Amino acid sequence: MLTNCANHLHLFTEQTPSLSVTRIELFVIPALAVDSAGHRICLRLTSNQGFGWSELFASDTEDSIDLERWSDLLQSFIGSVPLPPLHHFQYDKTDEDGRILDLFASAVNHVLAQSADSSPYNSDLEESVLRQRSVSYISLD
Asked: What is the pLDDT of residue 1?
C-alpha cells in the first residue's frame, strides 16, 4: 500500500524551538550615580512566555547611540524567534549593532530563565518607573 510521503514529513524535519515576541521596548535613562556620566539603556521584551529585561550602560564619552538604527534591527525580531537567540548569527558584541543584538539576546535568555508563574505586576510597576525617568522611549510591536 502506498501512502503520501508528505503526511510523514514531520518525522524527518527538525523542530526548532522558538519564542513569540510581541513587543520590544527601549528606555534610555540618565545614570543616577554621581561618578557615572552617561545613560542606562534598558530593553524590555514581551513574549508568549513572559517578560525579559536586559540593560547596558553608555557613557557620555561614547559615540551617540543610533536609536533609529537599533529600532530597525529590533523590529525584525517581532514575531517568532528561534532559540537559542542569534545562535547561528555571527556578530561583534563590541560594535554598535552588536551591542543591541547582545542586549536583545540577554532579554530573551532572561525570559527563558524566569518561572512561568512570575507576576506581571512587578514588571508593569518597573515599566512605569522607567517611563517616568526615561529621556527616550521606543516601543516596537
From this structure: 43
Cell digits for 54?
A: 536586559
Nearest one of 84, 72, 80 to 108, comparing CA atoms: 84
What is the chain's alpha carbon radius of gyration, rounded to the nearest angstrom? 18
pLDDT tens column, 90-125:
666 667 788 888 899 999 989 988 855 455 556 667
Residue pair 141/22 in contact by the 8 Å Cβ criterion: yes
User: Residue 91: how many CB atoms within 10 A of its CB?
Assistant: 14
Q: Please give the sequence-ordered ranges of beta strands (E in DSSP) within 1-141, or none if there are none.
A: 18-30, 38-47, 50-59, 79-82, 136-140
Q: Across residues 37-51, what is the average pLDDT?
A: 91
Residue 27 buriedness (CB in 10 A; 0-12 / 13-18 / 19+): buried
Backbone angles phi, psi at 138, to 5 degrees: -130, 135
Question: Cβ contacts of residue 74 below 8 Å, gap of 6+?
Answer: 24, 26, 100, 104, 140
